[in-house]
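Teaching soon. Invent one.


***
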Amino acid sequence: MQIEFQTSVGRKRKNNQDTVGVYQNKKDITLAIVADGMGGHQAGDTASYLAVTGLGEVWEETMLTQKDEVCEWLVSHIQEENTRIFDKGSSHPEMFGMGTTIVSTVLLEKELILAHVGDSRAYIVRNQEIKQLTEDHSLVNELIKTGEISVEMAQNHPKKNILVRSIGVPGEVEVDISLINCQEKDIILLCSDGLTNMLSNEDIKLIMSNGKSLKSRVNELVEKANEAGGTDNITVLLIDFDDELQEDTP
């Protein structure tokens, strides 16, 4: 298994509110996280950083290896980060209302445990096909599900960036948990919407399946998103379940 990631400020923003991290616990079980912060000034930076490092640092001290325990841990600790971020925003006027999305995965051999809140996404590429593994917690997705707008209309909807679920809200936040059985040739993508707002699923699939090294594919996804406009911060994390290391041909 290989993991590579990269984050970019993009071409329109002055600062990067995305945070990405990869952590191992005491049993060498990997937790990978992407968070996309929201809020004025540097509040979004703070929210995403708190969520990722808060989860990661606690994970490093655990010895969890069992699926049920990991699922429970993810939900409870994302809830704790939600409270911590809300409390910090409430006590610092310059950070009031800050929040973040989060998409995270724990890798248990060939099984993937996903936990997410917001519209940062996880995808899988298998047998030359791409599938979104997470559901956006956004207003436009709710409108799509009720049939009020089409998927095509959602692409340029004026309220596209409004979330119905995020980290940093009062009370409890609902955390989506899903389990994915992975195969040797699978590639998993975690990303912020700075990638998916710029590139289609087909564009992403072609890059993820091009046979280049994992690092080259991460770089190319970020580069193509910037070439397409780079209107937001862009974060890409790829997990390759192929046991053979890939090298780029000269």
The helical segments are 43-59, 67-91, 139-145, 151-154, 193-196, 201-208, 214-227. The chain is about 30% helix and 25% strand.
